[in-house]
Structures are given as C-alpha cells and as structure tokens.
Amino acid sequence: MILVTGGAGFIGSHIVEQLIEQGERVRVVDVLLASAHQVRPQVHPDAEFIEGDVRNGELMAPALRGVDAVCHQAAMVGLGSDFLDTPDYVAHNDLGTAVLLTELARAGFDGRVVLASSMVVYGEGRYQCANDGVVRPAPRSIEALTGGEFEVACPDCGATLTPAAVPETAPLEPRNVYAATKLHQEHLAQSFSRETGVPVTALRYHNVYGPRMPRDTAYAGVASIFASALEDGRAPRV
After folding, report:
1. Nearest to residue 19, comparing CAs of 75, 71, 73?
2. Which residue of 84, 199, 212, 224 shows the fewest CB atoms closer than 10 Å?
3. Alpha carbons 35 and 112: distance in angstroms, whole number
4. Sign of CA dihedral 231, 235, 237, 238
5. How far apart are CA 187 and CA 193, in angstroms?
6. Cβ contact 154:132 at 8 Å
7. Which pTM value belongs to this model?
C-alpha cells in the first residue's frame, strides 16, 4: 500500500493514476483546501480516499496502517499574497510534515518516503558572468522592478548575466516564506531519516505544467498565463 498525501491535487492526482496503472494499491489523504480546489475534485475510483488534514495525528495514525511507502505531496503552494500568509504556510507545510513524520516514527515505519520539495530552495538560481564566472546576484531592487528591468547584473562587474543550469550541489538560499517552508520540510525529513534509517528522497520540482494544473494562480499557472498572453499578442505581465 502506498500513501499519497495531497493525492487529490494537481501533481498528486497524476501520481495516484500512475501508481494504480502499475498495479499498486493506493491510499489518499487530502484536506481539499479551497485555495487549491475551486470545485471538489474526483479522486481516482480505485484509490482509498480519506478526507482529512495531515496535521491531525489521530487521523494519520490509522491512515498509515499497512502502508509500505509514502509520497508526501500535501502542501500549501504558491508564494502567498503577502507576509501575513506566513502562519498558514508554516502550519500546512512544516507542521503537516512534522506530524506525518512523527506518526511514521511512532508506527515503526520501515518503508520509503518521497517528499515534494521545490526549486525555490535555490533562490535566484545560477548565472554565468563572462568576466567573473559563476555568480549569485542579489535580489532585484524595487526600483529595477518598477522600471521594468527584470534582467540581473553581475554583482562584481555589472555585466549582463547568462542563466545556467542549477546543479543539486548549488547553495541553498530560500528568498520567500514558501521557499523557507519547503527547505524546512527537507531538513525535517533528513532528521527523520537519520533517526529512523528510513530512506527519504526530496524532489525539487520546478514550475510543473499539464492537465489539472491550478491555472487561476499567478505562481502555479505562470506557464499557461504567459502562453495565453503571447498567443493573444499581449506582453506577459511579470
């Protein structure tokens, strides 16, 4: 049995489908946050569905019975509208992960855990300067953004930078609350793995695109929003 938290969501629902197609038995736990679901989603009919919150230890304890692997997708996604959203992000992402891992440890779980993390843990990312090599520019200034200047310059010489691929070994520098919670999820999972010996894999997703994606949010739906603007002959709003 494989438990998929957040299995009614965009990425989680595709994971559930693929697992069932491979002949796995799947159990889904999802609280069905209104911010993620404008209409009630249809969970795969061959999956066992528990509507509930991963922060509820009394619910998670029985949900973990007979489970051999956990795919932890449940999270509050996006960047939030402002810093006042911080308690919600920390509660859903960090506390939710803490409760899940605690119940796994309490149950003597000896399977495998896969955690949905994010590329945002790297911050700005990786850039190449023709003069100074690999550099990590500071956040864009309010003045630059207001003036429509979105490209970043070398912090050493001011030259225009070339974006480069980000390796797993790149320094971590979360620059917003969502990014901080995703990195904290990884740290909690690492501590859990060291204490229990349970292998944990963190997948640092980038912007994921496809059917059932939440197109109404500027963060998650950026690919479709930009594509629609370009098709209509409009400049994408950054």
Report:
1. 71
2. 84
3. 29
4. positive
5. 10
6. yes
7. 0.88
